[in-house]
Specification:
The strands form four sheets. Strands 6-7-8-3-9-10-12-11 form an eight-stranded mixed β-sheet, sandwiched between helices. Strands 1-2 form a two-stranded antiparallel sheet. Helices cover 27% and strands 17% of the residues. With 368 residues, it is of the alpha/beta class. It is globular, with a radius of gyration of 22 Å. It has a domain of 190 residues: P-loop containing nucleotide triphosphate hydrolases (Rossmann fold, 3-Layer(aba) Sandwich), CATH 3.40.50. The chain has twelve helices and 14 strands. The structure holds adenosine-5'-triphosphate, iron/sulfur cluster and magnesium ion.
Length: 368
């Protein structure tokens, strides 16, 4: 997803692109949940808005059952919109202050003709009960609720259409810590009771630790590492994931498995209008080498459910000294063309996992 950047003045010429989300690839299993984590501005909300087709992607595909959501017209999308719903980042701005809770939760039921008009109110009350609100409060306005309660209204609205996939965009980050756990528990109950799949977007890895068996880490529009819980929390191989894990505040470290040595990242996140060449993380990476500026590291599968995009993936302080990707890319260790080498055809990132992968110890593709 690229957003055009235009010049000022009367003739607003296009002068560049915000490369907000660039060639990411992942899968959310039916009834499962994937966590999507990264710093502010890395493209998480954009990803959520693409999947729910609030944005139309500039390229790529998004398969939902046999439909490519990316290429469908608005009218063809309408029946599918029911099945893919979003909970928004900000419970204060995502609810219309002039509408009652009954109208907010009931409107999707009417628009999609889910229940006869006479039954809308009782369905709304059922939904309010599911999310732990008083069903008699359907006539109240959002301003009469607390932040946590408003987020529950947003969840009730998203549930109204019995979706198959819920994109939850930082559903708890605007809430008090004491309320966060309650809302996460509610989402967990919903997942268990209704079998809804989740794409759960969060700022830090501790929030999604218990909710998501699988986590993807994003940096500046790219997925840099993706894998099951064990791989991401216990065996991260990307320097950025390692830094994120080490930066989780002490009180939350217990939830992700004890204290870790703090890795400080220098500098700011670069602009997505003019991202660094090669690996986008290289300007802040403590172990970057020449090849990192010349070639983008492929998102390589390195375990049965683990992929990483780094030329030097390894444990903290044990990153290899030579790029593991050079031979695959057909270049020498400094990233210069190597006429004798043949680039590997296996580098295109597909969603999900293969049953063969690149073994970091033997440096060959193999099977478990
Ligand atoms: N409609 C838009 N037009 C232009 N640029 C946009 C638009 N929406 C997002 N962007 C840019 O795309 C990048 C990704 O934004 P996005 O909102 O997806 O980040 P995020 O990961 O959700 O951040 P946060 O954690 O702060 O919510 C940012 O640089 C943002 O400025
Ligand atoms: S590819 Fe290079 S710059 Fe990028 S994360 Fe790996 S070592 Fe760092
Ligand atoms: Mg966001």
């Amino acid at each position: 997803m690229y957003f055009p950047v235009r010049s000022g003045g009367i003739v607003r010429r296009k002068v560049g692109d915000v490369q907000a989300v660039d060639g990411i690839s992942f899968e959310v299993p039916e009834g499962g949940s994937l966590g999507l984590v990264g710093e502010s501005g890395c493209g998480k909300s954009t990803t959520g808005r693409l999947i729910t087709r609030l944005y139309t992607p500039t390229a790529g595909s998004m398969m939902f059952r046999d439909h490519d959501l990316a290429k469908m017209s608005n009218s063809a999308l309408k029946p599918l919109r029911r099945e893919v719903q979003m909970i928004f980042q900000d419970p204060y701005s995502s609810l219309n202050p002039r509408h009652t809770v009954g109208t907010i939760v009931g409107t999707p039921l009417l628009v999609h003709d889910i229940v006869p008009k006479k039954q809308v109110l009782s369905r709304v009350q059922e939904l309010l009960e599911v999310v732990g609100l008083n069903p008699e409060h359907y006539n109240r306005y959002p301003s009469e609720f607390s932040g946590g309660q408003r987020q529950r209204i947003g969840i009730a609205r998203a549930l109204a259409l019995s979706p198959k996939l819920l994109v939850a965009d930082e559903p708890v980050s605007a809430l008090d810590v004491s309320i966060q756990a309650q809302v996460i528990n509610l989402l967990q109950d919903i997942q268990r009771d209704f079998g809804v799949a989740f794409l759960f977007i969060a700022h830090d890895l501790a929030v999604v630790r218990h909710f998501c068996p699988e986590v993807a880490v994003m940096y500046l529009g790219k997925i840099v590492e993706i894998g099951d819980r064990e791989s991401i929390y216990s065996h991260p191989r990307h320097p950025y994931t390692q830094a994120l894990l080490s930066a989780v505040p002490d009180i939350k470290q217990a939830t992700i498995g004890g204290r870790r040595e703090r890795i400080r990242l220098e500098g700011d996140v670069p602009s997505p209008i003019n991202p660094p060449s090669g690996c986008r993380f290289r300007t802040r990476c403590p172990i970057a080498q020449d090849i990192c500026a010349k070639h983008e590291p492929p998102l390589l599968q390195i375990g049965s459910r683990h992929k990483v995009a780094c030329h030097f993936p390894g444990e903290v302080h044990k990153h290899p000294t030579e790029p593991i990707t050079a031979r695959l890319l057909g270049v020498d260790n400094a990233g210069n063309p190597d006429p004798g080498a043949t680039p590997s055809p296996d580098l295109v990132t597909k969603p999900g996992y293969d049953d063969t992968w690149f073994d970091l110890d033997t440096k060959t593709f193999g099977r478990a």
